[in-house]
Structure formats: C-alpha cells, structure tokens
Design a protein that fits this description.
about 10% strand
Length: about 290
C-alpha cells in the first residue's frame, strides 16, 4: 500500500513538473529570458536576479485579464533601483522589448483610490500610477458602455474579461497571443510550484517511511535468520540428544532383557540345585540304609 501511495505521489509530481516546465518555457519566451543580448546586458548591469513586474504584482482575483490587457508588454518590465544608471548602452538591445520601471519612485500604495479604478485592484513594488491612472473598471461590456460617454479623453474602462474601452475606441483581448494571460499563467505557475513542493515533500516523506520499513524488514529478517539458525542448532542438538537417548533406551532394553534372561536361568539353576540336592539327600538315605544291613 505504501508503494502504491509513493508511486502515485511520484506520478503526480512528474505530471506537475512537466506542466510547470511547459508554462515556464512559454513565460521565459514572453519575458525575453532566452534573448542572449538581453541576458548579457542584464548580467553586465547586475540585473540577472532583478524581479519582473509580472512576479512582483498582486492583482485582486478575477481582474488578472484586465490588468494583463492594460499593462501588456509592461508586465515583462524589469524592476530596477535607479533608471539614471542604466541608460548608457541600453540602445544596444534591439532584439527584445525591454521595459524598465524604477522601483525607488514613491508608489501609489500610499494613496487611496476609488474601488472602481483598476489601480485599486493592484499592489506592486513599483509605482504604476503612470500606467493605470484614469482607468476604471466594469464587470461587463454592457456596464462599461453605459458610462462610456462620461469619460474624458484620457480616461478609459476595462472589464474583467480584458475588454478595454475609451470614449471613442474599444480594444479586445487577443487570447491567441503568447503574451496574453501572462498574469494568469504566472499565478498558475506559482500554484503548480506549490503543488510540486507539496508532492515532492510528500514523496520524500513516503520514501523515507518506506526506507525505514525496509530497514525494519531487513532487521527483522536478520533476527529471523539468527533465530532460525539458533532453532536449527537446538533442533540438531535435540536430535543428537534424542539419538543418544534412543541408543541408551535400546541398551537399557537389551540389558533389561538380558537381566530377565539371567534371572530365568538363575531360577532354573536354583531349581536344578534344589532337585539335585533332593536327589543327593535321597541317595544318601539309601546308602545309609544299605550300610546298616
């Protein structure tokens, strides 16, 4: 039963790892992590481990598609500590859409925003005010269209499904784009990473438990072998003793039989002696009588 649980846990872990690797490959491609020129530039500027916005942002559940649509390529932005120090050779990067966000700029976390704004549904280490100001939220397209006419030129509305509407324009989400769903993919990756850790931990625990049982079985087998060897030795000794006892009993029976035979012979001899003595006594009497004549 433990082997079944272990195999099941390993199977789930392997399936999750396969899905995780697949999603990470898509994410790496979208974020440009496989672009050599970009990687070299990041390494040169000590930004290899710098967080990406997609991994440093928290979005109210259900609004991921909306934020995904509005921020777009900026979700792959690299959060840096000072933009002024990174502009020297930045024009050399031409194979990737590089976006940098200065995370030392005071963020909007300290400001209070209306609940029907997109920025109110986002928490990030970087200041996203410039990207999200003036963007309101609506649950559906119908709801958004009812307030479209009241929008200023710089304002817009985005729905949960990622339909983005301005005063005189509308933009639909491209579900087939690899970049689409980056936040949901990142969320899914994080969930899979947790599941992977869980099943890895569970598998390790089951494996340790199985190893402990196997060691106990080996110890029990050793004890069984020792006990069996001791029993065999005792049985052998007992057999030898039984053989000796059998031999002694046979000798005893032989001696007993011989004793009985000798006692019978002695009885016969005694009877013969008695008979002979009687005959002698009779002969002596006859002799005495003959001499008296």
């Amino acid at each position: 039963e433990l082997n079944i649980k272990l195999n099941d846990s390993r199977g789930r872990y392997q399936n999750i790892e396969a899905r995780l690797i697949s999603l990470q490959e898509i994410e790496n491609e979208v974020l440009g992590k496989d672009v050599e020129a970009l990687n070299n530039w990041l390494k040169k500027n000590h930004l290899t481990s710098a967080p990406r916005l997609s991994g440093a942002i928290q979005v109210t559940s259900g609004w991921e598609q909306a934020v995904d649509k509005v921020l777009g390529v900026r979700l792959s932005a690299i959060c840096v500590s000072n933009l002024d120090n990174l502009t020297g050779d930045i024009e050399d990067i031409k194979q990737s859409e590089l976006v940098l966000i200065d995370n030392t700029t005071p963020g909007h976390a300290h400001k209070i925003h209306s609940q029907n704004t997109l920025i109110s549904k986002v928490k990030a280490e970087c200041d996203l005010t410039a990207f999200l100001t003036g963007i309101y939220t609506a649950n559906t397209v119908s709801e958004a269209l009812t307030i479209r006419d009241s929008l200023a030129d710089h304002e817009s509305i985005v729905t949960r499904a990622g339909v983005w509407i301005g005063r005189n324009w509308m933009s639909m989400p491209n579900q087939k784009s690899a970049r689409s769903g980056l936040l949901e993919r990142r969320k899914h990756i994080e969930e899979l990473e947790e599941e992977s850790k869980k099943f890895k931990r569970e598998g390790d625990e089951l494996e340790q438990e199985l190893m402990a049982i196997q060691q106990q079985l080996l110890a029990s087998e050793d004890e069984r072998s020792v006990a069996k060897r001791s029993l065999n030795e005792k049985n052998k000794s007992r057999a030898e003793e039984q053989a000796k006892l059998g031999h002694a009993e046979a000798q005893f029976r032989q001696l007993k039989s011989r004793q009985q035979q000798i006692e019978q012979e002695l009885d016969e001899i005694n009877n013969q002696l008695v008979s002979n003595r009687a005959a002698l006594d009779s002969a002596a009497s006859l002799l005495a009588e003959a001499e008296g004549l």
